[in-house]
Hints:
The protein is α/β, with parallel strands linked by helices.
Amino acid sequence: MAFLRIFQQIDCHAHVHDAEDLFLMARHGVTTCLDMGTKDLTVFQSLRGGVGNCDIRSAGIPAMPPGSRHTSKPGIPRRLIVAGPEDAKGFVADRIADGADYIKVMLEAEGPDQATVDAVVAEAHAQQRLVIAHATTCETVEKAVEANVDVATHVPQDRPLSDESATKMKAAGTVVVPTLVKMLATAAKESKLDYANSKSSTISMRQAGITILAGTDANKHASGAGKVSYGDSMWEELRLLVEVGLSPFEALQSATSLPALFFGLGDRGVIELGKRADLILLSKDPLQDIGNINSIQRIWCGGVEVPRSG
C-alpha cells in the first residue's frame, strides 16, 4: 500500500485541560496545539515538552472585561479582568511572567472599550508578543482591526461581515481563525445564532484575500453550547473550510505551513531535514478529497510514534 506523507496538523485554537486532551489530539493527527486560554496556569506549564504527544503553546489567562459572561464562570481568576487602559501594562507583564507565548483578549458586548484594547495590543507588541482577539460579532471584529490585533479568532454570528470590513481586515494584515466547527455547534444550540452568518463572513474574508488558519476551539465543557471534541474536530474544520471556498491544498496549508510561519514555529510546518519530526501517514490523498485526512495509518510527534489507541 502506498502512503502519502502530511507534515503535522496545527490546531490554532483549543482549550487544553490535561495530558489526555493532548493525546486525543495526537491520536487524530494534531501534532501541535495552540491553547487559547486556560484558568489553570499549571496545566500548560506542566504539559510543555511532552514526549510523543501533541506539542502545546498557550496564551495562559486571557484578558476579560468586568461583568462579562466569561468572568462570571466559576473558578475564573480575578486577575484576568482588565478594566481600563491603565491595567494593560500589568496584565501583559503578568502573562509573560506566567510563560504565555502570546496574549489573548476577549472582546465582548461588555467591553473592553477601544482604548483598553488599544493599550493591551500596544503593550503586547512592545514586548514582542502576538495578540489574539476573541471576536464573534461584526462590532468586535471591527474593534479588533482598529486595535491592530494580529489574529481574530471566530467569525461573526450576529450578521454577515461586510465586504468593506473584510477589506479593512486585509489592509490591516489581520489573520483569521474562523473555528467554523465551533460556530456550527453554538448555532445548533442557540436559536438566536445563525451559522449562515459565520459561513458568509468567512467567504467574504477569503474573497478579500485574508489569511485563514485552521482552529477548532476544542474544549471539554460539559454544559452550555458549543462543546467541541479534541482531534476529530480538526477533520470537520478542514471540511468546512473547503466548503467555504478553500481548496484542499489551501485547507491543508491552513493547518500546517501557514500557522507555523505566522506563529513563529520555525522548527515545523513543512517536511525538511532538521525540522521537528511530526509526521502523519495516510492511505488516501486529502488533495483529492479533504475527507481523506482521516485515513491515518501512523503518527509521530517529535519523532516518537503515537499509539492509535489505549
